[in-house]
Design brief:
The chain is an alpha/beta fold. The protein has a single domain, classed as Uncharacterised protein PF12979, DUF3863 (TIM Barrel). 34% of the residues lie in helices and 15% in strands. It contains 9 helices and 12 strands. Strands 1, 2, 3, 11 and 12 form a 5-stranded parallel beta sheet that branches. A 3-stranded parallel beta sheet has the order 4-5-8. Strands 6-7 form a two-stranded antiparallel sheet. β6 and β7 form a beta hairpin. The longest helix has 21 residues. 44% of the residues are buried.
Length: 310
């Protein structure tokens, strides 16, 4: 029996980035840096509790905004990579580039802007010795230009797709309306779908689950985040896991740290206990349907997909 795979990815940006506060230049990193250490402890606890090695892919910001704010594309990598890899050599370091014009993502980012922005950051990371194979675009933004740049610089795996999600408001612009749940090689004509000709780069979409929040009238398909409140996350997650061969999750370090009063996202627990409970329940639910559960980094999972190991 082939193993079921859990892919944990962690986006390392400023505090509150997942609710839109990462668009500004006045970054605050206090909870993010604290959260990295707490997540590492959580993974050790899960590993000991279930007798399973927990590895993750950590996507770290590097882009023009970081360069302009700190004077170095590699500032955040230099701060946190040794902390992460020192905790476990099985963790993977990935790249989280954010593209902005005037503080928001725009539909009309030019090919030249995308190329220069991504190339400059990537080559700065490479020069500093950071060998990147896996990416997630900030705010899950892509267009045909950005996908081509990632292909041209040699990125092997991208993790930006949110199947069937479209969001064009409040500084966000993402369009994955035509994208399905399966891993695919993006078409050079439309990054959202497979096709011919296609890129060698492999797109690994995030796993999604329908969640109805208290402030909504109908469920919304959302990425699976183990930092969500238990009651929200498990409205429909068990049925998703029953059908899945793998689960591709995303987390943000500041989401495991209690925020200031009346701050934060209403779906997020900001609780170590809830995060541990969610991860344990994911493992236990998978084990009902498979004898073998493994955590894989994006690179490990992608390599197995390409070689036919899954």
């Amino acid at each position: 029996m082939k193993p079921k795979s859990i892919i944990l990815t962690i986006d390392i940006g400023p505090d509150g980035a997942s609710i839109g506060k990462g668009h500004a230049n006045d970054f605050i990193w206090t909870n993010t840096e604290q959260g990295i250490l707490i997540l590492l402890d959580a993974f050790n606890e899960i590993s000991a509790k279930h007798g399973i090695d927990v590895s993750a892919t950590w996507f770290i910001r590097s882009d023009k905004v970081i360069q302009d704010s700190f004077g170095s594309y590699t500032e955040l990598f230099d701060r946190v990579v040794s902390v992460i890899t020192g905790a476990s050599v099985t963790h993977e370091i990935g790249w989280l580039p954010q593209l902005y014009t005037e503080g928001v993502i725009s539909k009309t980012l030019s090919a030249e802007y995308c190329k220069s922005s991504l190339n400059e950051a990537y080559y700065a990371l490479s020069k500093a010795g950071y060998q990147i194979q896996s990416t997630r675009m900030g705010d899950c933004y892509h267009n045909n230009h950005t996908m081509k740049v990632l292909e041209d610089i040699g990125i092997k795996y991208d993790c930006s797709a949110l199947p069937h999600r479209v969001k064009k408001e409040a500084g966000w612009y993402l369009d994955w309306e035509l994208t399905g749940e399966k891993v695919y090689h993006p078409s050079s004509d439309d990054y959202r779908v497979p096709g011919h000709p296609s890129y060698e780069l492999l797109e690994i979409p995030l796993s999604m689950v329908d969640i109805l929040a208290d402030y909504e009238v109908q469920p919304l398909s959302r990425y699976i985040n183990p930092c969500f409140k238990n009651d929200y996350l498990w409205q429909n997650l068990e049925s998703v896991i029953e059908k899945a061969n793998y689960l591709h999750c995303v987390m943000h370090p500041d989401e495991i740290v209690p925020p200031e009063k009346n701050a934060g996202h209403p779906l997020v627990s900001y609780s170590y206990k809830d995060t541990i409970n969610n991860l344990s329940r994911i493992i236990n639910t998978f084990q009902k349907h498979s004898e073998c559960i493994e955590f894989h980094t994006v690179r490990e999972f992608g390599d197995k997909m390409v070689s036919g190991g899954f």
